[in-house]
Amino acid sequence: MIGYSPQKTDDYVAVSVEATPGYVVGFEPMAHADRVHHMLLYGCTMPASDQGFWRGMETCGWGGGSYILYAWARNAPNLVLPKDVAFSVGHEQDGIKYFVLQVHYAQPFAGEVHDFSGVTMHISQRKPMNLAAVMLFVSGTPIPPQLPAFQNNITCMFSSSTPIHPFAFRTHTHAMGRLVSAFFKHDGHWTKIGKRNPQWPQLFEAIPSKLTIGKGDQMSASCRFDSMDKNRTVNMGAMGVDEMCNFYMMFHYDAKMENPYPQGAICSQDHPNLMKDYPADGFELLPTRPELEHHAHQSKIPFGIVQEAIHEKLGGIKLGQVAGLAFNNQKQLLVFHRAERVWDANTFDNYNILLDKTPIKDPVILVVSFNGNQTRLDKKLGAGKFQLPHGIYVDKDDFVYTTDVGSHTVSKWKIEGEELKNIWTSGESMLPGPDQKHYCKPTGITRIGDQLYVTDGYCNSRVVVLDLNGKFVQQFGLPGEETGQFNLPHDIVSDSQGRILVTDRENGRVQHMTTQGHVIEEFKSTMFNNIYSAASHEDYVFMVPGRPIMGHESEGIAVFVGRSGAGLIEYAFGPATRGKREQMGPQFGQPHCLRVSPDGDQIFVGDIAEGKARLWQFKVQREENMSSMTSSISLGWPSLTQTDAKYNSFFVLLAFAILVLGAYCVRRRCRNLENGGTLFDKRVSRSNVGFKPLRTEETVGFISDGSESD
Questions:
Q1: CB-side neighbour CA atoms (13 Å) of 608
Q2: Phi, psi at residue 248, to the nearest 5°?
Q3: Which residue of 20, 31, 224, 542 shows the fewest CB atoms closer than 10 Å?
Q4: Residue range 672-682, pLDDT digits in tens
Q5: How far apart are CA 267 and CA 181, in angstroms?
Q6: CB atoms within 10 A of CB 254
Q7: DSSP 8-state class, residue 386
């Protein structure tokens, strides 16, 4: 499977993939400071290991070039290079035959969490006028204790006859760093390259003016540290207890001229006499920016999603198949279960007609309050009103909406005291159909604005749009596997932007769509071939398969979490003993529904496995008030925009397998860049990447593919 779980404090791992020839014009990180300390992307002539994946700090091998291409830390955003500037990769003359991604984890995760962090490289086939490179200024000077300001200085002379033009910079220290700056000196005059607080997002910041560094110029950098809270000397090093002093200078040079640093650019010398007249501005602190420090915050406690409880009873009521979940405006959880009724092969006839038409006599909606893993049953509703519950939703006005696959209906309800009052029912009870007045096993429902969106479902493979009175407005979607088509739309939720996420169950994907049915992106992976339910919280999309891929039952089902706008899986989690036999700890049986609490602190999964109906409860472990960061803060670079099929993207992942360690590169959904989509002129298939992907299924056994017994 893809995904890595750090084994120790300051765990370094690396993955290598063969470089396909081209020109890198943008970098799109997918990571979060809660999980990852930093990532460094190198271009190497040879990787440090031929295993594809390895532990340790080594990146490029001996006997060839080592070139820094990109660096990320503290929730830095995307990087798009200027027009007509790109990194040359995969060509004989550039010396880059492999990409190596190094990832540093500060501490192990809590719970059964596996990380998928990485970087997408946007690659053009058109040679630019200017080639890009990165110079690293790095100091090894230890920091004495009890000093409010200590400077580490680095100086080198530029000796190449090829002029270079710095256009972006990045600073990096650990917690003691307060400022990192760099200047160059030409004919006795100092010019600033850049300065930045390293406690802010560690992005590549654009240099606003055009700079030229020529032969004989002096290049210098300085790091300012505060060691007042230290009682010992702090060394420079790669571990969290150490410090770092790094200034990354991204520059370009004329593509027709010789590479000024054919073996890679690094400056690590300290010449105190040459720093005597270093500008005072290079030592002066910048004004505080609390919003940036908040955005860049790295959690002091391990990130994790921890199994908090498994509920087989709520308020003394034994749970039946947990088909649906929803939160109301009082942050109570509504559990929609089937009591004693079980959906199996004998539930419907060949015409989708329910055989046992008697309503379920017991309450099927349980309104529950949670305090940690303690529960309180506040209400029990719906006795005698449902044939076979499936989906449930509560809107901002506290109306409850349900879908009933047994009666083929969609209903709107109001809770009045201890009663569930019907407002309207859409569809003809017990009579399935494909037209505007009928449904066939409808599955999910959500509200956006003044309209309701219903996934209809097992037979019709469409989304039906209703007004708030239950009247038909429109529909979209057809059976099939193409974009915008469905093969059993099983769940539907809305995101924070008023768009919908449709769980396209048997196509094994979640389609992120506008309210008119236009697909924005899709979440799809070789790690699953079905998705039963999805939920959205802030920038993240949570999704869970309901059954394993056959042959991989022992590996355990996981919940996968992707980043909205990326269409890629970012991490996964599951039960505390995921992938182990049931005798060693409970496993997901057949997850059917998933919801995230409004504050994002808890995740609930409803399980319908026969004889093992359960409600799983997970706790997100993080510092107080440290929710996932959104992209609302402007950080100075253009964004990566929508789909364009004229360029390639590679996603370099960390890969970990139970018996095999290796690397995997995912060709992701292509998207254009703002600095010129017409430059992108070639799509690279997975066969061009130059290595074989790992087996990546996440599975746990339960029923055969294609079963409708759920």
A1: 31
A2: -100, 120
A3: 20
A4: 333 333 222 22
A5: 14
A6: 13
A7: -
Separation CA 67–CA 89 (nearest Å): 10
pLDDT at 74: 86
- CA dihedral sign, ordered 95, 67, 565, 604: positive
Find the angle CA(571)-CA(333)-CA(405) to the nearest 5 degrees.
Answer: 90
Q: Which residues are documented as binding site for Ca(2+)?
A: 653
pLDDT (mean) for 560-572: 93
Cβ-contact 373, 321 below 8 angstroms: no
Map tokens 């066939």 to a residue: 440
Q: In three state form, how does the secondary structure of 265-281 look?
A: EEECCCCHHHHCCCCHH
Pairing of strands 399-404, 150-157: unpaired
User: Per-residue DSSP letters for 350-368?
Assistant: TTS-BS--SPP-S--EEEE
The length of the chain in residues reads: 710
Sign of torsion, CA 5 11 17 21? positive
**pTM exceeds 0.70 for this model:** yes
Quickly list DSSP for 8-66: STTEEEEEEEEPPSEEEEEEEEE--TTT-SEEEEEEESSBS-SSSEEESS--BPTTS-E
The CA angle 354-360-366, to the nearest 5 degrees, is 125
Contacts of residue 374, Cβ cutoff 8 Å, sequence gap at least 6:
none
Binding residues: 37-38, 104, 172, 174, 244, 653
Q: Are 357 and 393 in contact (CB under 8 A)?
A: no
CB of 323 closer than 8 Å to CB of 593: yes
**In this predicted model, what pLDDT tens digit does every residue of 227-281 receive, in sequence order?**
999 999 999 998 889 999 999 999 999 999 999 999 889 999 999 999 999 999 9
| One-letter amino acid for residue 688 of the chain | N
- Please give the pLDDT value at position 590: 96
pLDDT tens readout for residues 632-644: 333 334 444 433 3
What tokens does 87 get? 């990194």
142-161 average pLDDT score? 97
Please tell me what DSSP assigns to residue 437: T
CA 578 to each of CA 100, 456, 585, 665: distance values in angstroms, whole numbers, following the listed order? 30, 32, 8, 25
Q: Residue 253 gets which letter from DSSP?
A: E
DSSP H or E stretch at residue 295: helix 290-295
Rounded CA gap, 6 and 35, in Å? 10
Residue ranges of the binding site for Cu(2+): 37-38, 104, 172, 174, 244
Those residues with Cβ within 8 angstroms of residue 46's Cβ, 6 or more apart along the chain or in another chain: 60, 61, 62, 63, 64, 97, 98
CA 386/CA 359 separation, integer angstroms: 5
Side chain identity, residue 362: D
Alpha carbon distance 57, 51 (integer Å): 15
Question: What's the rounded mean pLDDT across residues 660-669?
Answer: 29
- How far is the CA of 135 from the CAs of 71, 507, 514, 553, 660, in angstroms? 12, 46, 43, 48, 35
Place of tokens 């609490």: 597
Write phi, then psi, for 464 (nearest 5 degrees). Answer: -105, 135
DSSP 348: B
Q: Provide φ and ψ at 213, rounded to 5°.
A: -110, 125
Distance, CA of 10 to chain centre = 22
pLDDT of residue 585: 75
